[in-house]
Write a structure and sequence with these properties.
Layout lengths: L2 H11 L4 E3 L2 H13 L6 E4 L11 H18 L8 E3 L7 E4 L20 E4 L14 H11 L2
Antiparallel strand pairs: 1-3, 2-5, 3-4, 4-5
């Protein structure tokens, strides 16, 4: 990967994002992503090796269904607030925070937590997560991608 590609990804990662505050907003975002599931999405589980190729349409749709279930089960709040997209209507970068590793995901922090998962149109670069995925998340991820 070129240095320019790495810089582009990191710039997109640090760019402007909209917080998906309500579950209805998440449903709408998922619908947009489902419509574009064959659009060259990379699915990156932060802490694992970044994928080299975009996911196929079936994996994107499966991931959306699985991550939606996980978020609704493990973030048992009447609001979402753990998903951020660069655009709700035409997303190219989506950060999904793990409900069990939120830290200070909004507001200001010198060391904000990394998202658990990223969907992006750009090939991802290793964000050097400070710890590996917990065993339960790694099993979930490996089951999802068929590893």
């Amino acid at each position: 990967m070129t240095e320019q590609a790495v810089d582009s990804y990191r710039a997109a990662f640090k760019g402007r994002f909209e917080n998906v505050l309500r579950w209805e907003q998440l449903d709408a975002l998922w619908a947009v992503l489902q419509q574009d599931a064959a659009g060259g999405w990379y699915i990156y589980a932060v802490g694992e090796a970044p994928p080299q190729l975009p996911a196929d349409e079936a994996l994107v749709k499966s991931f959306i269904g699985e991550i939606d279930q996980l978020l609704r089960k493990e973030h048992a709040e009447d609001y979402c607030g753990v998903v951020f997209a660069d655009s709700m209507d035409s997303p190219r970068f989506v950060k999904i925070f793990d409900p069990h590793n939120l830290g200070v995901s909004c507001g200001f922090s010198d060391n904000p937590p990394l998202p658990g998962w990223i969907l992006s149109k750009l090939p991802p670069v290793d964000l050097q997560a400070p710890v590996n995925l917990p065993a339960n998340r790694r099993r979930w991820w490996n089951r999802l991608i068929g590893a």
